[in-house]
Amino acid sequence: MTTPSHKALVPFVSVDNMMRLVHSIGIETMLRDLAEYVEADFKRWELFDKTPRVASHSDVGVIELMPTSDGEAYGFKYVNGHPKNTSEGLQTVTAFGLLADVYTGYPVLFTEMTMLTALRTAATSAMAAKYLAPKGADTMAMIGNGAQSEFQTLAMKAICGLKTVRLFDKDPAATEKCARNLGAFGLNVVRCSSPEEAIEGAQILTTCTADKQNATILTDNMIGAGVHINAIGGDCPGKTELAAGILNRSDVFVEFPPQTRIEGEIQQMPEDFAVTELWEVISGQKQGRRDDKQITLFDSVGFAIEDFSALRYIRDHIKGTEFFIDLDMLADPDDPRDLFGMLQRSDA
Ligand SMILES: NC(=O)c1ccc[n+]([C@@H]2O[C@H](COP(=O)([O-])OP(=O)(O)OC[C@H]3O[C@@H](n4cnc5c(N)ncnc54)[C@H](O)[C@@H]3O)[C@@H](O)[C@H]2O)c1
């Protein structure tokens, strides 16, 4: 057996180590920090390579690759979306990702991203709400109480000062699970038995359901003036959560229009439907919320730059910790051109 040189090694963060890292930092602190990393990258948006994610669809789900680069580092995430999975004891969304050095092309981090996707999606939602939700918003309807729901709620608490969450899921067991998990965080948690009940008195409405088809979680007549809608679950062709009428009455904010027009709520609208790019609001070039009557809608699908920010965050925060192991991932022959010789010698 040969001992790999340090050049062969890539830090790897397992699910177990990711969870230990989250606990050591504290989940609310980590959500706030992640939102700052995402916000910093949205402020330098124009610098990044951007492409709609590469999606491979099947009858039951989707598998996607999400690459981007800021010219110094390159990152990608592998992620799936399979709404039928939970009925088979599997998760709807799982992910892993990699960060590499553009100068050498060598990976510098390989990590689980199932936990990290839930954290970065929630941090991004709360960052958007900070700019778009009405002033003083402290109550959120959380419709869809699955894997992402507690993360979404805690990010809104940590970043926007949420005090009350009103839960609804078509499966009461999911609501029970979510309420139980949120019990220790000092929030007022209300279990609701319909979407209509969940949105009562809420200034932020989050939809985070999973279905492989167009659903109408919120109908037009449910939406009054002045709310902020955080639409998370509609993120694939043929998979939406909102009635089209809501989009017509809202100012719609998106991540990357070429991807959102394929995957987001606005897939229901004409190609030239007006949207504002969130990075333009964050960098001060466009207005977010204008007044307290406006309906704002963050049509979130999840974009590669958010994963890049999360990868950067993990790279920066595992340094000097025990929350990773080194993987022998890269062949490192003594003579860089003698890869074959390295193979032959390994059999000696
Ligand atoms: N925008 C993003 O960046 C992003 C990131 C991650 C996940 N997502 C999407 O968010 C959605 C939720 O992901 P998850 O991991 O929490 O999935 P999940 O399967 O764990 O949870 C989804 C929940 O929605 C509920 N639900 C389904 N239809 C409903 C309806 N009509 N009314 C009320 N509840 C309903 C289900 O019972 C389930 O509890 C998925 O569609 C996923 O693709 C988006």
TrEMBL record:
Domain of life per record: Bacteria
Signal peptide: none
NCBIfam families (UniProt xref): PRK07589.1
The protein's name in its UniProt record: Ornithine cyclodeaminase
Source organism phylogeny: Bacteria, Pseudomonadati, Pseudomonadota, Alphaproteobacteria, Rhodobacterales
